[in-house]
Amino acid sequence: MISRDDCSDRPAKFLEGARSPTVVEDDGTIYGQVFPRKGQPDEVELHYYHLWRRDCGEMGHRLDAEHVSVLVRTGASIADAKALYWYAAAHEDTICDASHLARAATLHAEEHGGTIWISEGKHASFLSEAMCTHGCGGDRCARMKPLKAKQIINVGEADTPMNGMVWLNSIEWPLSGKLSRSDFPEMRVARVERLPETDIVWANPAKRPAQATILGANAGISGAATGIRATDTALDVANSSTSSALDTTTGKTGKALKGSSRNVWKAVKKSVQKTGEVLNGKRE
Which H, E and C letters describe the chain, residue by residue? Predict the structure, then answer.
């Protein structure tokens, strides 16, 4: 599901053979990758990358590499394959990382794709519409429509691109890092298994306190936390009162979020700039 108001319209198709990511058109192309899960010969991991011409939210920038992935248990035939877990990347590797995962059964997506919500402008991926407001306040899933994907192209691996996708390793975006790691490490999967089957789980729960600090000035912070079972739990999808509370919270705090968003992102931008100065100093 993508926003009707997104400035990039749809995920982009990129020029084959170009070392720098060069947009051909915003046609809804999805790029795919598949590899065996280490130590599990009967499991494969599939990544689906939706790549955008630009991020046009707060702190916008050229190019945007986002994805969702699924861990599949293979069988004797394709018909026997079964999804085990789904993962949605949202602001990976940043202080506002709201990436999360869930059992495929929780999402009713064991034998087919799950419904993925892509936030307007920022393009973060979410496994639930209600999850869209659970980052640092910069995501919004409104006026959504189904994405009509034009095609899925296999990109191969970071060190062995396929189909002319030599732009995979460009330093202009963080795509190569996403290609080179699993979204389902053992500790992460074990955490999912410890929690109830109805739970969507934070991939990086340690970042939640910092995110709460960023949103601390927002009067709706306590309301947005409604339905959280524990630090690890992002959302209990079985609790109808939780959904109702989240809907109510969204309505009541919408104005507060809008008003505080710019200040929040200014604070994040300053933090990023300071981190960049430190890193540049180390490089020198």
Answer: CEECCCCCCCCCEECCCCCCCCEEECCCCEEEEEEEECCEEEEEEEEEEEEEEEECCCCCEEEEEEEEEEEEECCCCHHHCEEEEEEECCCCCCCCCCCEEEECCCCCCCCCCCCCEECCCCCCEECCCHHHHCCCCCCCCCCEECCCCCCEEECEECCEECCCCHHHHCCCCCHHHHHCCCCCCHHHHHHHHHCCCCEEEECCHHHHHHHHHHCCCCCCHHHHCCCCCCCCEEEECCCHHHHHHHHHHHHHHHHHHHHHHHHHHHHHHHHHHHHHHHHHHHHC
